[in-house]
Design a protein that fits this description.
Order of helices and strands: HHHHHHEHEEEH
Distance between the termini: 54 Å
Largest sheet: 4 strands, mixed
Helix content: 55-70%
Structural class: alpha+beta
Oligomer: single chain
Strand content: 15-25%
């Protein structure tokens, strides 16, 4: 049952669980996910929309009216549109990112997909990305949704986070360990 899942909590989690259960019951998980992704892409690309969601000055009526217009223009309908309108009417748009993140986690759990984040000093080549993905899938025995993050500060190697596990094979960490070992001699 989704509501007993430890991956969601708080107000955003409760909204996400409700949306997940409705979408799952209506066999619309993929459609709702796609619509929510499109909405977040619009949110990322529009400072005005971001302001609408975050600014408490706007009344629930103003937020709902604006969101309805945005959704109509983006051709987002169905369950996702009704959900976003409800969130606006309850003055919870400031939590929409957290709600979508929790919803995505529930969908991934339902589909047996584990999310993993790999941090590297420089972007991975396609060959290296496939090797990392294959290794993670072999380790977990599940499908992996891989997110790549570039952080030149790690100098080389990589840091992998998958669930509650983290493997730090970065050059920076190894150099720091050598430095500490040398100072304790």
């Amino acid at each position: 049952m989704a509501s007993s899942s430890p991956i969601v909590s708080g107000i955003a989690g409760r909204y996400a669980v409700a949306l997940f259960e409705l979408a799952n019951e209506g066999k619309a998980l993929d459609a709702v996910s796609a619509d929510l992704d499109r909405f977040l892409a619009m949110l990322d690309g529009s400072a005005d929309l971001e302001q609408l969601c975050r600014n408490p000055v706007f009344t629930s009526e103003e937020q709902e009216k604006a969101i309805t217009a945005v959704l109509a223009k983006a051709e987002i309908g169905g369950l996702a549109a009704n959900f976003l309108k409800l969130v606006a009417s309850k003055r919870r748009l400031f939590l929409v990112r957290a709600m979508v993140t929790a919803f995505r986690a529930l969908v991934a759990e339902k589909k047996g997909i584990v999310s993993a984040e790999v941090t590297v000093a420089a972007p991975l080549s396609d060959k290296n990305r496939k090797a990392v993905l294959d290794a993670l899938q072999a380790t977990s025995g599940k499908s992996i949704a891989l997110t790549e993050r570039v952080d030149p500060a790690i100098i080389g190697g990589l840091v992998v986070k998958m669930g509650s596990k983290m493997i730090d094979a970065s050059l920076k960490t190894k150099l720091n360990a050598m430095k500490i070992a040398m100072t304790n001699v």
